[in-house]
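Subject: for your reference before the review

Hello V.,

The reviewers asked for a structural picture of the protein, and I figured it would be easier to keep everything in one thread rather than splitting it across files. Below is the amino acid sequence we used in the manuscript, unchanged from the supplementary table.
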Amino acid sequence: MGVKIEENMLRLLEERDWTVYRLSKESDVAVSALYNIASGKKKAPNVETAVKIANAFGVSLDELVLGKKEGCDCHDGYNNLH
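And here is what came back from the structure prediction:
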């Protein structure tokens, strides 16, 4: 799961042309914590941090964690397991 968050956070930063520093200011999450997530040193943020990051980007927690936009079929991964 952490790899998805890392990839999605980097994608959202690039889409918005934001730096990690800007995300830190927008989300009230420490720059060091964001760098640890982006670099993969920290596999996944705690829920409070993930919510702050998602809110700063203006996306749902699902999009941050799973890469899914609201309104899509988020059960695809589950169905592929069976």
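For the response letter, the relevant points are probably these. Helices lie at 2-16, 20-27, 31-39, 47-57, 61-66, 76-81. Residues 74-82 have pLDDT under 50 and may be disordered.

Happy to draft the paragraph if you're swamped.

O.
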